[in-house]
Every structure is written in structure tokens, then in C-alpha cells.
UniProtKB/TrEMBL annotation:
PANTHER family: ATP-BINDING CASSETTE SUB-FAMILY B MEMBER 10, MITOCHONDRIAL, ATP-DEPENDENT PERMEASE MDL1, MITOCHONDRIAL. Keywords: ATP-binding, Cell inner membrane, Cell membrane, Membrane, Nucleotide-binding, Transmembrane, Transmembrane helix, Transport. This is ABC transporter ATP-binding protein. It comes from Streptomyces tagetis. One of its GO terms (molecular function) is ATP hydrolysis activity. GO terms for biological process: oligopeptide export from mitochondrion. Gene3D superfamilies: ABC transporter type 1, transmembrane domain (1.20.1560.10), P-loop containing nucleotide triphosphate hydrolases (3.40.50.300). Residues 357-592 form the ABC transporter domain.
Length: 600
């Protein structure tokens, strides 16, 4: 990254980007401008009341007390008390409304980021650490809480108080006001320098927090703990986390101490200003100039003291906003991510899906790569038919299966469902039409019933049992102490691999899709478990269009058509018997499979 000295245009460009970012932040508050207008009225009313109090004090000192006017004194004193009460009431109402607005803005941001991520393609999540995503939603948006809930209102409130107080000070004595504000430009310059410094540190701090969150997510998951324990790396992981935390400590200290001494100088100077005012007033009298009355001086110092708090707060708010810009920038980065998988403006909706699949000269290559993963694929799977895709590791089998539910979009050619390009279908039709059972089964940390109902939220208990029976997992669930209310544990670790697969199959049966993609659903299972799961898969596949991505060839012999992929091309295709008679690549794979997995 270039420094200012390396690129003289970087500073204006940076300011232009900040200006654009501030306008974008202000747009977040646009839906709540009515409530913010009320806050503005309350802020203005509170500022007027607080500014009026010193004038009442001047009248007490210059008129009521010297002239012994008890009635006026009582009225003025009552006015000062009423002013304090009104200021407090206005402050409470202002805080309530501004906090509500701020929390709604944070809710909108969280929802917008989560919704954006839900629309991202699978490729985004394969190259992004889970902890990084979580950190953006939790740490970055959480770090903005003070800014969106109180800082904006504080800025308006303090700015209004400062302007009203300065006007009142000028009305009392313009010469003393000039002395009081002599160093104000210097203070503003210092606060801007501090804010820029803190913004840069905040950016680095949030990145470090994201890195630490990613480490925690990966190493403290069930899989991470198992790997660390079995590899004897628990101490090493602890040291790595300690190093990450140590770097965060340094950045946190630097963030909190950035410009602290310079801001302290401002605080000291402002605290010393009353003494300067008394000295100036006394010197003016000694030099024979027009002096201010005692009441005026006391009222002026009272106003100046009232100016001190909002002025310092205003400068500190400016610093805080500068730091918050780094957080907003990280959130906007996610909101600006291009969505690869989108729904057309006028998508096609199918009420009934037969299930015919066609791959027409399909090509697919990952972003940033030259060689295609799939190239020139022309295949047809009739409705209710079955297609098995086999081949060596890296042949493109899983990518082939991902194209049907649009986890990826083709880069050439097209995939059609009942003659309609899947890219033209609405998401609801595609989700209802295509069910996927993959090798890596994901279960939520919830009950068995809740995991099954994720496919069909309104499913009855009888439907759950029926789906579980078809997947041959009902008897096991029924034998559990809590039955279908049993919590499966993190990522389903209370269940074996075969049991998790059968739960996933039951979940898909409950959804009842006409098209089924089985992505190496039994490759990680032993022979006995595979046989049980295969029976469940056979029940699931009945009368459905089925695309099976196979690792073990014993599971695909009954497929209507078997396709052998090699380096992204169709090397062979036919039935099991036809391919065995050709004694080509498929036959070689079968013989290898027989050696690796003995039968009998």
C-alpha cells in the first residue's frame, strides 16, 4: 500500500472515498428520518434550556441579589431548577429514540450482510474462512454499536450545544469569546490527525480479530478438537492462539492510546480557560477598558464550562467516527460483493416438475483458471431415469453434480430441467425440484425432529416417522432416550457416519424432490454401513431422476447409464454390461475397485 509520501494524490483520493462512505452511512438512517427529526427537536430544546440557565444566573447576581428582590430571586431560581428538569427529561427521551434507531440500523446491516452471504455462490465459501465471515457479522457490526446508537445523536447534540453556547457567549461579551475560541482551529486539526491514525489502527485490529475468530472456529469445533488431540497438537494450537491474541493486545493498546496525549493537551487547555477569562477580565479593568459586570463574568465562565464538555465530546466523537469508518468499510466490502448466482428478473416457475435433465455442450472453469474442469459435456437423463458418473479423482465428478442445483453456474453451454435452462428457473422451483445428498452430511445442533423439519417445516410427526422408516433410521431414533427430541450435537457428532447419512436421506425424502443428486453419499462408509445406507438410497431414488456421483462402483451397476469422466471429458458411457464388454476405462476402474474393496 502506498504512503502519502509515495503518492501525492493519495490524500485527496482518501478524503473523496471517506466522503462517499459518509454519504452511504447517512443513507442507512434515511428510513428513520422521522424519528431523527424528533431527536433533533429534543436536542435543540435541551440546548436552548441549558444556554438560558447562565443568563438566569447573571440576573440573580446583577439584579435580584443586589436589589434584594426576593420574588424575582425565587422566580429565577425556580427557572434554573425547571431548566435542569427539562434538560434531563429531554436527554432521556433523546437517548431512547436514538438508541432504538441505532439498533434498527444495526439490525438492517446484520440482515443485509447475512442475506448477501446467503446469495453467494459455493465458490465464495470455499475460499473464505468461516471465522472471517462470522467476525464481519459479530465483531465489525458489534463494534459499530456505539457509533450508530449514540455517536450520531451525540454529534448533533454536541454540535447544537456548541453553536448555541458560542452565540450566547458572544451576546454576553464578544472579546472574552474571541479569547476563548483562539485555539479552536488547532484543536480541530489535532482531533483530525488523531482520528486518521485511529482509523488505520482500527482496520488492522479488526483484521486481527477476524483472524483470531477464524482460529477459534476451526480449532474449537468438534472436528478441530479431534484433530488436535489425535495429532498431539493441542499445545501447539494453544501457542498459535496465544500469538494471535498477543498481536491483538498490542493493537488494542495502540488503538486506545492513539492520540491520547494530544487529546489530553486539549482537555488541559480547556480546563484552564476559566482562569484565562478571569485574568483577561481583570487585566481589562486595570488597563482602564470597559469591564464586564460580575454577573456577566460568572455567567460567561458558566457558559464556557458548559462549552467545555460538548466541545471535547465533539472532538472525541470526530475521532470515534474516523475509527468507525474502518468498520463500515469492512461491512460495505461484503455488501458490495458481486453475486454470481442470481435469479432472473422474470424467472420461470414450474408447478409440476417431471425431472428430465439435459447437459448441452456444458463447459465449466473456476474463476482465475485457464483449463476447464468440464468441457463439451452432452448428456440426457430422462425423467425417472438414473445416471451414474464415475472417474478418477479430479475428473470433475462433484462439479458436474453441483451444476444441477446451481451451486455453480456453467461457463459455457447450458443445463436444462424439463427443457428450461436452470438459470432461468426461480429459486423456489429449483429448490423444490432438486435434492442433494452429499458425502459431508451437515446436521444442526438441534433435535432430530428439527433437523428433519428443516426440509419441510410443516411436516407432521407421522411424516417424520414415515421418512425415517424409508431411510431405515426410525428404529435407531426410537431407541434413543428422547426419541425424535434427541439433540444431535455439534455437526451431528452423537451419530455415526452411516446414521448421519440416513438422517440426511430421511430429510431429503421428506422434501420429496423429483430430481436427486447423490454426491459420493456412501464413499466414507464401511461395507456393512454402506449396504444399509444403499438400501435407504434405493428407496429414496425410486421413481426419481437420479444423478449419482460414485466413488465405489458397486453402488452404480444398476444405473440406466454410466458415464466415465476423465479430465473433464466424457471418456465412456453405457450400461454396466456394455462398458465391461468394452474392457476400457470403466472395466479397469471396476477391477481396481474389486481389489480395494473385496466382496464376499
Amino acid at each position: 500500500m502506498r504512503t502519502h509520501s509515495q503518492h501525492p494524490l493519495s490524500a485527496p483520493a482518501d478524503e473523496k472515498e471517506q466522503s462517499r462512505q459518509v454519504r452511504r452511512i447517512l443513507r442507512l438512517f434515511r428510513p428513520y428520518r422521522g424519528r431523527l427529526a424528533v431527536v433533533g427537536l429534543l436536542v435543540g430544546a435541551a440546548s436552548l434550556v441549558s444556554v438560558a440557565t447562565p443568563f438566569l444566573l447573571r440576573e440573580i447576581l446583577d439584579v435580584a441579589l443586589p436589589e434584594g428582590r426576593t420574588g424575582l430571586l425565587s422566580l429565577l431560581a425556580l427557572g434554573m431548577i425547571l431548566g435542569a428538569v427539562l434538560t434531563s427529561v429531554f436527554g432521556v427521551l433523546q437517548t431512547l429514540i436514538s438508541t432504538t434507531v441505532g439498533q434498527r440500523v444495526m439490525h438492517d446491516l446484520r440482515t443485509a450482510v447475512y442475506g448477501r452471504l446467503q446469495r453467494m455462490s459455493l465458490a465464495f465459501f470455499t475460499r473464505t474462512r468461516t471465522g472471517e465471515v462470522q467476525s464481519r457479522i459479530a465483531n465489525d457490526i458489534g463494534g459499530m454499536q456505539a457509533t450508530v446508537t449514540s455517536t450520531a445523536t451525540s454529534l448533533v447534540s454536541n454540535l447544537t450545544s456548541v453553536v448555541a453556547t458560542i452565540i450566547a457567549m458572544i451576546a454576553l461579551d464578544w472579546r472574552l469569546t474571541a479569547v476563548s475560541l483562539l485555539l479552536l482551529p488547532v484543536f480541530v486539526w489535532i482531533s483530525r490527525r488523531v482520528g486518521t491514525e485511529r482509523r488505520k489502527i482500527t482496520t488492522r485490529r479488526q483484521k486481527q480479530m477476524a483472524a483470531m475468530a477464524a482460529t477459534v472456529t476451526e480449532s474449537l469445533s468438534v472436528s478441530g478438537i479431534l484433530l488436535g488431540r489425535t495429532m498431539g497438537r493441542s499445545d501447539s494450537l494453544t501457542r498459535a492462539f496465544s500469538d494471535e491474541s498477543e498481536r491483538l493486545v498490542d493493537l488494542e493498546v495502540r488503538s486506545n492510546m492513539a492520540g491520547r496525549w494530544r487529546m489530553s493537551v486539549i482537555t488541559i487547555v480547556m480546563a484552564a480557560m476559566p482562569a484565562v477569562i478571569y485574568w483577561t477580565a481583570g487585566l481589562t479593568l486595570q488597563l482602564g477598558g470597559p469591564g464586564a459586570s460580575l454577573g456577566t463574568i460568572v455567567a460567561f465562565v458558566s457558559l464556557q464550562q458548559g462549552l467545555f464538555r460538548p466541545a471535547v465530546s465533539l472532538l472525541s466523537t470526530g475521532v470515534q467516527i474516523q475509527a468507525s469508518l474502518a468498520l463500515f468499510q469492512r461491512i460495505f466490502e461484503y455488501l458490495d460483493l458481486p453475486v454470481d448466482i442470481t435469479e432472473r428478473a422474470d424467472p420461470v416457475h414450474l408447478d409440476q416438475v417431471k425431472g428430465e435433465l439435459r447437459f448441452e455442450n456444458v463447459e465449466f472453469r473456476y474463476e482465475g483458471t485457464d483449463a476447464p474442469v468440464l468441457d463439451g459435456i452432452d448428456l440426457t437423463v430422462p425423467a425417472g431415469g438414473s445416471l451414474a458418473v464415475v472417474g478418477p479423482t479430479g475428473a470433475g465428478k462433484s462439479t458436474f453434480g453441483h451444476l444441477v442445483p446451481r451451486l455453480y453456474d456453467v461457463t459455457g453451454g447450458r443445463v436444462t430441467l424439463d427443457g428450461v435452462d436452470v438459470r432461468d428457473l426461480d429459486f423456489d422451483t429449483l429448490a423444490r425440484a432438486v435434492g442433494v445428498v452429499s458425502q459431508e452430511t451437515y446436521l444442526f445442533h438441534a433435535s432430530v425432529a428439527e433437523n428433519l423439519r428443516f426440509a419441510k417445516p410443516d411436516a407432521t410427526d407421522d411424516e417424520l416417522v414415515e421418512a425415517a422408516r424409508a431411510a431405515q433410521i426410525h428404529d435407531h431414533i426410537a431407541a434413543l432416550p428422547d426419541g425424535y427430541d434427541t439433540v444431535v450435537g455439534e455437526r451431528g457428532h452423537r451419530f455415526s457416519g452411516g446414521e448421519k447419512q440416513r438422517l440426511a436421506i430421511a430429510r431429503t425424502i421428506l422434501r420429496d424432490p423429483p430430481v436427486l443428486v447423490l454426491d459420493e453419499a456412501t464413499s466414507a462408509l464401511d461395507n456393512r454401513t454402506e449396504a444399509a445406507v444403499q438400501e435407504a438410497i434405493d428407496a429414496l431414488s425410486a421413481n426419481r431422476t437420479t444423478v449419482t456421483i460414485a466413488h465405489r462402483l458397486s453402488t452404480v451397476r444398476g444405473a440406466d447409464r454410466i458415464v466415465v469422466l476423465d479430465a473433464g471429458h466424457v471418456a465412456e458411457q453405457g450400461t454396466h454390461e456394455e462398458l465391461m464388454q468394452r474392457d476400457g476405462r470403466y472395466a479397469a476402474l471396476v477391477r481396481r475397485d474389486a481389489r480395494l474393496v473385496p466382496t464376499g
